[in-house]
Amino acid sequence: MAVTINGTTGIETNTDTGKIKVGIDDDLTIEHNGTDSVIDSNTGALHVKSNSSIAMLVNNTEDAIVANANGEVKLYHDNTLQCSTSANGLAFPSGKGIDFSATSDAGGMTNELLDDYEEGTYTPIVLASGSSSGLTMTYSQQHGHYTKIGDLVHYCLEMDWTAKSGTNSNSGSYYLNISLPFAAKTAAGVWGSSTINWNTGLEFDNGGAYCHHNKDGAYMFFWSPLESGRHDYYVRTSNLHSSGGIRMAGTFKTA
Known about the structure:
This protein is an all-beta fold. It has strands at 3-6, 10-13, 17-22, 28-33, 37-41, 53-58, 62-68, 73-77, 80-86, 89-91, 98-99, 113-114, 117-122, 126-128, 136-149, 152-165, 176-179, 193-202, 210-213, 219-224, 233-234, 240-253.
């Protein structure tokens, strides 16, 4: 094998195989074996350095890994960005997430991508048939917290009020609602549930109420049993006293 070094093309060999060796004990070798190209560090670590970015490409032009100075490291699949590092950990583009398709599935499986996680707070309010119009509440406190994993939301809230007014504030024609942090999912068979942990100022027939989440908006309804075994009475704003408070928690699916 002949090796040629010139100022135009660099180092050349006259065969399809060859190896460049650095160090007494072949500490670093760069080799083409006729099929593959190999960089082999036999002593210590192999450092690839740049004062800007380092990109690993496949199929000549497709990004596989891109590392940016003082920034993110991006990971690609078939030249499409799948995730990148961030100051907080690992970040996913919209529509991407953790893929669980390698696990076994139930017969009705529709999605195996975990694509969202969120924690936060919101300000719960009392509504009349899903609207704040015609209902004015004076609150002494309003606290709401939620955790969203995929399309499943768990929330808890506490709120107290000292006055209510407005044309819809004491009506048997308007349903009593409390707002949620997200709109409930609209789909057959999809229902959420809530538990009233403590209540004063809400009057329920027969001493109790069931809560469910409206599929048309970000608020819940209350059902109160008219008689034993029935729960088909929607609690109205007329059941709401002029002062009171409520503590609740629940879980529902969102779109």
